[in-house]
Design brief:
seven-stranded mixed sheet, 401 residues, Aspartate Aminotransferase, domain 2, 13 helices, 13% strand, 14 strands
Length: 401
């Protein structure tokens, strides 16, 4: 049989999807499974989104569309940018894609040659590593351990950017940690970015509407609008509007970058489909109360998770203020045994496997995000499952010998 391309040796299925798959298998066998694994919102978009999609279906042209994105979609995105305090952009600064994942891949493909430096913080969202590896970039990880609240500090970024990576990718609020940078922290990091003009900066801000405790959302561009010639903002419908499967993502940045993405779209996908475009326009320009309301619910769930974790001796968890993830350091369990099953816990992966087998609770091992001392809890399961899931989690730790 002929061989696959060499680059496929570096391509793998997302670890998050693998956990979700195992949980699905156990469920199919009749096990009572509670999934804290996948990061999907627990709400659907408002009826106006479905109405727009239905209407578009009625008059769908069935034709190819714009490589950049339909004008109506770009305009709706421009309105969304303004609402986020990012003004002064035009359609020429924007491009769309099949979800933020696709936009991020395209951006990396457009900006990175093989061997170019690609810097981002650890813990990172899994796909950053996958994208960098597939493109043959020189990945430069910036470790942000729990002792550092999982956040980059200015001196660390300064040292990293002094190596002149081609791209620095920044994620705020963070998946997997849920941490949110304060205005002061963003201001200090923006000053560092300003001192290193050789690096493109991608800000993956797809959770920016999900910020709690009044900390607010801040981007380098709010503090230093002069960085607009090399800071690229990425957003998506998936989390904010409860539309992960609709697959629509966006970028705003320098015209030359938006044009490059338009060219890549022309090669990869041609266009975001018409019906999806209509739904996306409705979500972006319709009532914004759905995302607002969700935030309050998420903050309450976050508190519930932290309260449970606080009852487990030795588990340490910086307090997240956004997204819908909690990322506790569970390394206290390493070297112990789950007494009722006899399963030995040597690592985060073994812990997650044992937790799933023994208690039917699915979490993602931290090593999937580059932090093997932790695991990720995504708290968007159905309301009725949250408390029992947390109780089983706590019981599991209580049963360690
Ligand atoms: N960035 C981050 C930080 C994410 O968590 C995700 C989805 N889990 C994405 C990008 C991709 O989002 P989508 O492709 O659904 O728009």
């Amino acid at each position: 049989m002929p061989q696959l391309a060499r680059r496929m040796g570096r391509a793998k299925q997302s670890a998050i999807m693998l956990v979700a798959e195992r949980a699905r298998q156990l469920k199919a066998q009749g096990r009572d499974i509670i999934s804290f694994s996948i990061g999907v919102p627990n709400f659907l978009p408002g009826p106006h989104v479905y109405a727009a999609a239905r209407e578009a279906l009625e008059r769908d042209s069935g034709q190819y569309g714009s490589n950049r994105g339909a004008d109506a979609l770009l305009d709706a995105f421009l309105g969304h940018l303004e609402a986020a305090g990012l003004t002064g952009y035009t359609r020429a600064n924007c491009a769309t894609g099949i979800g933020a994942k696709h936009v991020l891949f395209n951006l990396c493909e457009a900006l990175l040659d093989p061997g170019d430096g690609f810097a981002f913080a650890t813990p990172y969202w899994t796909s950053y590593l996958d994208i960098g590896e597939l493109l043959g970039a020189d990945i430069q990880l910036l470790p942000c351990p729990p002792e550092q609240d999982y956040k980059l500090v200015p001196a660390q970024l300064d040292a990293a950017l002094a190596r002149k990576p081609r791209v620095f990718l920044f994620n705020n609020p963070s998946n997997p940690t849920g941490m949110v940078y304060t205005r002061e922290e963003i201001a200090a990091l923006a000053e560092v970015v300003a001192r290193h003009p050789d690096t493109w900066v991608i800000t993956d801000d797809i959770y920016h509407r999900m910020v709690f405790d009044g900390v607010g959302y801040h981007n380098f561009l709010h503090l230093r609008p002069d960085l607009r010639d090399r800071v690229i903002f990425v957003d998506s419908l998936s989390k904010t509007y409860g539309m992960p499967g609709w697959r629509t993502g966006f970028m705003a940045g320098p015209e030359v970058v938006a044009k490059a993405l338009t060219a890549l779209n022309s090669t990869h996908i041609t266009n975001v489909p018409e019906v999806v475009t209509a739904a996306a326009v409705a979500a972006l320009s319709g009532p914004q109360d759905v995302p607002q309301a969700q935030c309050e619910g998420f903050a309450r769930r976050r508190d519930q998770v932290l309260e449970m974790l606080a009852q487990i001796p030795g588990v340490v968890c910086p307090r997240p203020q956004g997204a819908f993830y909690v990322f506790p350091d569970i390394s206290v369990a390493f070297g112990r045994t789950h007494a009722p099953t006899g399963l030995r816990i040597g690592s985060d992966v073994e812990l997650c496997n044992a937790l799933l087998e023994a208690k039917g609770v699915a979490c993602v091992p931290g090593s999937a995000f580059g932090e093997p001392r932790a695991l990720r809890i995504s708290y968007t399961c159905p309301e009725a499952q949250l408390a029992p899931g947390l109780q089983r989690f706590r019981e599991f730790f209580a049963e360690l010998a």
